[in-house]
Amino acid sequence: MAELKGGLKTALRRRRTAGQLSPLVWILSRKGIALKQNPVHMEDFTNVLIHAARVGNLDVIRELLSRGVDVNARDERGYTPLLIACYNNRLQAAELLLESGADVNAGDYGGNTALMGAAFKGLPEIAALLIRYGADLNSQHGNGGTALMFATMFGRNEVVKLLLESGADTDILDVRGQSAFDLAMQQGNREAITLLA
């Protein structure tokens, strides 16, 4: 999001000094988050929360959650703040959201979970955090793929090891009838083949 323009920033600073601006709007303006609506009357902070999760802005996340913004709110694609934080490797933001009650198994509208995103991107610290908070290791998205399948297909072998050590089911098949082992064979991922054999 673009930074606030100088004139609006100055106006916000004056209103804050005069006690006419909520702390939330002040924090948002100080963090450079553009406000698309009248900043004094904003009601829907879902997109702001999702943006804060994307960039890992803990102050804004805390403030929004303290004001009752839904930690599991979704954008137009079904992404939750947790999905976005995890996909963008924002470990502290993801942990804050989980501590605040984020659904660790929430999927986007395609059924992709945060753990699947961490597996796809090769983010073992994020994957370990999600597993610690009870992520379903065997959840399947719309085409039947699992986090283990993503990690195997994209050569994210550190995540493959973590998932296997945590008890991921190696026998699950996707809609094409393929297992994680089959995908490792197709991709020529020798390390994963050895781990899955």
Characterization of the model:
- This is Ankyrin repeat domain-containing protein.
- Pfam families: Ank, Ank_2.
- Keywords: ANK repeat, Repeat.
- The structure is a single chain.
- The protein has 197 residues and is mainly alpha-helical.
- It is built from twelve helices and no strands.
- α6 packs parallel to α8.
- The N terminus is likely disordered.
In total, the number of strands is: 0
Number of discrete helical segments: 12
Largest sheet descriptor = none
- The first-to-last residue Cα distance is 46 Å
CATH topology of the domain at 6-103: Serine Threonine Protein Phosphatase 5, Tetratricopeptide repeat
Mean pLDDT: 86
Q: Any idea what the CATH architecture of the domain at 6-103 is?
A: Alpha Horseshoe
Strand content: under 5%
Rounded radius of gyration (Å): 20 Å
Which spans have pLDDT < 50 for at least 5 consecutive residues? 1-8, 34-43
Which structural class do the helices and strands define?
mainly alpha
The helicity comes to 40-55%
The outline comes out as: elongated
* CATH top-level class of the domain at 6-103: Mainly Alpha
Q: Could you spell the SSE succession in H and E letters?
A: HHHHHHHHHHHH
The name of the CATH superfamily of the domain at 6-103 reads Ankyrin repeat-containing domain
InterPro entries: Ankyrin_rpt (IPR002110), Ankyrin_rpt-contain_sf (IPR036770)
ANK repeats: 44-76, 77-109, 110-142, 143-175
Keywords: ANK repeat, Repeat
Protein name: Ankyrin repeat domain-containing protein
